[in-house]
Amino acid sequence: MQLDSGAVAEGRITRVTDFGAFIQFENGETGLVHISQIAHSFVRNIHDHVHEGDTIEVKVLGRDERGRLDLSIKELLEEPEEIPRPRAIGRQSPQFEAKLRSFMRDAKERGPGSIGATKKGSTGGKRKK
């Protein structure tokens, strides 16, 4: 079995991590499907898509500078008309928003460079000898 760029091959998932899935082929070679190459949509949890022990078909994207196989599952999937975007994060709590507004207002009143600045001529609490 020749695993050149563009080849489609079947392999078994030997390990699933937060960043991708490792695939082993019949010839003993192992490659990585990065989490970004799992699906066309945003993958929040890779375990929702692949499982250790599954046999899957992947496309060989190429090899990195160390000769490791870069693989893709999504290259074999039909691309949806519109790629779903990740759900927006909700607003912060009203208390947090009020504290942030208060902080920004106070910082603006103090003027630029006032945070952490010392008075001119100050030695920052150290005495000159």
UniProtKB/TrEMBL annotation:
Pfam families: S1. One of its GO terms (molecular function) is structural constituent of ribosome. CDD domains: S1_RPS1_repeat_hs4 (cd05692). It comes from the Bacteria. Residues 6-74 form the S1 motif domain. Residues 101-111 have a biased composition (Basic and acidic residues). GO terms for biological process: translation. Residues 101-129 are annotated as: Disordered. PANTHER family: 30S RIBOSOMAL PROTEIN S1 (PTHR10724). This is RNA-binding protein S1.
